[in-house]
Amino acid sequence: ALGHLSFYGDVAAMSGSAGASKWESSPNPSNKSWTFPDLYDWRVSVQYSNVTFDNDTRIDFVSESFTFDAGAAGVFRLAYLNASSNERTARGLLPLPYEFDLDAYQLSWGKKLNNEFAIGAEMGLSQSETIFKGPGFDVANTDKDSWSFRVGGQWNPAETWLVGLYGDYINGSADTALNVPTPLGILRGNTSDTVEQWLIHPGIAYE
After folding, report:
1. What is the pLDDT, as a whole number, of residue 15?
2. For the segment 54-89, what is each residue's pLDDT rounded down to a tens digit?
3. Which of 24, 37, 61, 131 lies 20 to 30 Å from 101 when distance is taken between CA atoms?
């Protein structure tokens, strides 16, 4: 759900019927124009949610979006998401105070070609920082950046049936600075990782 800035879990999964659902919480970007209300040219949404774990770590999510109907050009949506955690001790072999912060930006477009077909595209950028803290210094500080591009389409062959297909390209990188205490002092190091993914998601929905 967070990948497309939605807190609704009903059709927010990344496979199965979600790819064909016409509702906006579906990850298929073509739905942006499928259900947009005819009475309005634009709408604004602000949402808040949180997740709390057993060790009292809480992650707060705030999203803001602006959607507008550009007529023959289709429906556009600009969205922003911030996720941030309180400082709590993480469980595991190295119990350290933990903090997390994420900013995500998204531009979506959808166009309903007729009563049977809709197409759409989406671009996203996310930046996050994860920190494990030691006594007076950061033991690990990880910065992650990723961007994605998604295209999709939907077909309504019958009144209650929808068929959808969308594909993703994702490119991301992560840089981690390490400061590990040893009997001889602080051992410093850096690691870097990159990821590149191509994904295709088909779906069929009965609504």
Report:
1. 53
2. 878 888 999 899 999 998 899 999 999 999 998 877
3. 24
Count of CA atoms in the C-beta half-sphere (13 A) of 90: 16
Report DSSP letters for 15-52, one per residue: SGGGGG--STTSS-GGGGTTS--TT-SEEEEEEEEEEE
**8 Å CB contact between 169 and 200:** no
3-state secondary structure (DSSP) of residue 4: helix
pLDDT band, very low/low/confident/very high, at 149 (cuts 50, 70, 90): very high
- Name the residue with higher pLDDT: 190 or 93: 190
The chain-wide mean pLDDT, for the chain, equals 85
Q: Which tokens hold the place of 104?
A: 């995500």
Residue 84 near residue 112 (C-beta atoms within 8 A): no
Place of tokens 């939605």: 6
Closest Cα to residue 30, out of 197, 133, 165, 141?
A: 165
Residues found in the chain: 207
HEC string for 64-112 = EEEEEECHHHCEEEEEEEEEEECCEECCCCCCCEEEEEEEEEEEEEEEE
Strand partners, 97: 89
- Least Cα distance to 116 among 70, 155, 161, 60 occurs for 155
Residue 191's contacts (CB-CB under 8 Å, 6 or more residues apart) are 175, 176, 178
